[in-house]
Amino acid sequence: MKHAPLVEQLIQAFTCLPGVGPRSAQRMAYALLDRGRDEGRRLADALHGAMDGVEHCQRCRNYAEAELCPICSDPRREPGLVCIVSSPTDVLAFEQSGEFRGQYFVLMGELSPLDGIGPRELGLDVLEQRLREGQIQELILATGTTVEGEATAHYVLDLAQDAGVSVSRIAQGVPMGGDLEFVDGATLAQALRGRRPFQS
Amino acid sequence: MKHAPLVEQLIQAFTCLPGVGPRSAQRMAYALLDRGRDEGRRLADALHGAMDGVEHCQRCRNYAEAELCPICSDPRREPGLVCIVSSPTDVLAFEQSGEFRGQYFVLMGELSPLDGIGPRELGLDVLEQRLREGQIQELILATGTTVEGEATAHYVLDLAQDAGVSVSRIAQGVPMGGDLEFVDGATLAQALRGRRPFQS
Questions:
Q1: How confident is the model at residue B92 (pLDDT cuts 50, 70, 90)?
Q2: Given an 8 Å threshold on Cβ–Cβ distance, is B7 in contact with A54?
Q3: Domain B5-49 class?
Q4: Residues B32, B42: contact at Cβ < 8 Å?
Q5: C-alpha–C-alpha distance, residues A78 and A162, integer Å
Q6: Do B54 and A12 touch (CB under 8 A)?
Q7: Confidence of residue B184 (pLDDT cuts 50, 70, 90)
Q8: Is A1 helix (H, G, I), strand (E, B) or coil?
Q9: Lowest-pLDDT range of A124-133, A159-168, A181-190
């Protein structure tokens, strides 16, 4: 006997969260029991709501509660410009930059045949279909720079070229405001290769 | 627009947990949405179960699902020896030591008049009643060594003396296996004052 069974179950359940070990889980359970029962109930309701109510957008595969996500159903976004990203958090990062007025296609992963993640798992058949429909004029690749990200980017490039759609890739180089001494060699090499004429 | 509303609600709800800021909350929400919907539902059920089903033991005030907690209803525990602790986690710490075969009284806090925590809030009227009933032979004080812990210890001492029950306090000194250089001065001073004859 350590905890009351319901408390033990709650602690166990908390450990399913990323970065939460047995000790943090215990702290969370006791914090809610001690002085946050209403917050605990709200969290439970929010969990049920999201686990059951959040699906994927039919168009871009991002999380959505309706058939289309808010971005895909926004008439002010250009449907001809589509940015390919690996995950919903990448969409958030772009949205926070405020720079992009096109739409997204969210792969929800990257090609990794050994883990059983092939083109179908990433919805690339859906993308292929959309490319063939002719509404997309430019595809912007923004997948990661890992081996899987590169493989995915090349697969998408092939699809786009087959459909006659032009493809670009977001620039790789040194981050804004960063100190050069903290930039890794691979990034610096890429920044050198991608150098552009300097204009006043 | 940042997240889908249900996702936003879930992220918000996660920030009620101790040590969870907006970024960890987002990571948790996406982790469950991406590949842990069943775990998310289990966590929701565990939360509802614990928030609604966990009450306080009528005897020791620790968390319990029935009228008595497992320790108070265990006939092998000595009812004459009662250890006074501030919180349920203190009970766990003692139980893990495997040293204590008596029962507990869990204050669920410490005296702090400025925060509106007086003797009644800590159930000290219940303790007083139990001390008068005559079943308790020794009270072991194990409240914290803060100002509030000390004040609480002295209040309980008074109650016990009024009822003619003997009171002891757990030893304060250097922790086992600890290096002296990492022990604070107040603890060392206490360890010196509490020195005992050394026996072979």
A1: confident
A2: yes
A3: mainly alpha
A4: no
A5: 22
A6: no
A7: confident
A8: coil
A9: A181-190
Would you state the CATH architecture of domain B63-169? 3-Layer(aba) Sandwich (3.40)
Instruction: Write out the E strands in A20-175.
Output: 55-56, 63-64, 78-85, 102-106, 138-141, 166-169
Does A13 lie at the interface with B, CB-CB under 8 angstroms? yes
Q: How far is B68 from chain A (nearest CA, A)?
A: 11
- Taking an 8 Å cut-off on Cβ atoms, the answer to whether A40 and B24 are in contact is no
CB distance from A92 to chain B under 8 Å? Answer: yes
Residue B111 has pLDDT above 70, yes or no: yes
CA distance B169 to B172: 9
Task: Tell whether ipTM is more than 0.90.
Answer: no
Q: CATH 3.40.1360.10 in chain A, residues?
A: 78-169
B91: left (phi over 0), alpha (psi -120 to 50) or beta: alpha
The residues of chain B that CATH labels 3.40.1360.10 are 63-169
Mutation site for A-interface testing, chosen from B20, B51, B89 by largest number of A Cβ within 10 Å: B51
Interface touch B95/A1, C-beta < 8 Å: yes
Residue span(s) of chain A under CATH 1.10.8.420 come to: 5-53
Residues in B touching A49 (Cβ below 8 Å): 6, 9-10
Picking from B7, B17, B59 by the largest number of A CB atoms within 10 A of its own CB, the best residue to mutate is B17
Rounded Cα distance, B142 and B156, in Å: 11
Which CATH architecture group holds A78-169? 3-Layer(aba) Sandwich (3.40)
B177 touches chain A (CB under 8 A): no
Residues of chain B with CATH 1.10.8.420: 5-49
C-beta of residue A68 within 8 angstroms of C-beta of residue A58: yes
The residue type found at B78 is: E
